[in-house]
Amino acid sequence: MPVAPRAYARRVRAARLPAHKTLEGFDFAFQPSMPERLLRELAGLSFLETATNLIFLGPPGVGKTHLASALAAQTLDAGHSVLLTTLGGLAEALDGSPSPTAWRHRLRRYVLTRVLVIDEVGYTRLTAEQAHALFELVTARYEKGAILLTSNTSFAEWGALLGNEVLASALLDRLLHHAEGITISGASYRMKDRAALRTTPGAVAS
Ligand code: ADP
Ligand code: MG
Q1: Over the stretch 49-105, which tens digit does the pLDDT of each residue have?
Q2: CB 107 within 8 A of CB 134
């Protein structure tokens, strides 16, 4: 069924993807640790039906946000809703509220979207209240809606991240039960561009 252009445009705006990224635009030759076959398979979007979480792990600049955004864009193209947030943004959005009803209402946005992308897990340490909010969210989406998550932090550090080892282990239990881990190791693409700048004659700022 053709997607109404206005409805599509509305979903694209609501998704808050930081930039238009595609799998075609990803240079797999630059990042040999990233199996292209797996990404092509994920682009078939079966993870939507099985509510399988996709966890992109690796150091900065290796393409975690790029690949998560590309799959999110694919999800939009297939007619579904997407919402991308950083963990910091999510924590702020769910931090305190005038009333429990208003808080539940805020949480709903993150629960009901077909795909939730939580970017940049690891940069922000959560308060006790924020950690509980994240736990509620992951629990509410468990076996219902896929989460795409990017992180530079190993799971062992999630206790420190959430300030609560018991909560972190219960959260990871749910998050990882139906999940595909995609670990990218290798050089930062951002550094590649910077190195090219340094070695290009005349490119150095005067
Ligand atoms: P991360 O989220 O892992 O820190 P990003 O996905 O933000 O990294 O990537 C940094 C920048 O480099 C982005 O502009 C992204 O599009 C680009 N990039 C990263 N890896 C690749 C790649 N293999 N091919 C093409 N562009 C890439
Ligand atoms: Mg990123």
Answers
A1: 999 999 999 999 999 999 999 999 999 999 999 999 999 999 999 987 779 899 999
A2: no
The Cα-based distances of 7 to 3, 4, 82 in angstroms read 7, 5, 13
pTM, rounded to two decimals: 0.92
What burial class does residue 140 get, using C-beta atoms within 10 Å of its C-beta: 0-12 exposed, 13-18 middle, 19+ buried?
middle
Residue type, 77: D
Atom of ligand 1 nearest to the CA of 66: 6
Residue type, 105: H
**Is the dihedral angle over the CA atoms 125, 73, 176, 171 positive or is it negative?**
positive
Q: How far apart are the C-alpha atoms of 142 and 50, rounded to whole Å?
A: 11
Q: Which atom of ligand 1 is nearest to the CA of 63?
A: 6
Each domain of the chain, given as residue ranges in start order, spans: 35-187
Instruction: State the distance from the centre of ligand 2 to the C-alpha of 61, rounded, in angstroms.
Output: 7
- Domain topology for 35-187: Rossmann fold (3.40.50)
* Alpha helix stretches (DSSP H) within the chain: 5-15, 36-42, 46-50, 64-77, 87-93, 100-112, 128-141, 158-162, 165-177, 189-199
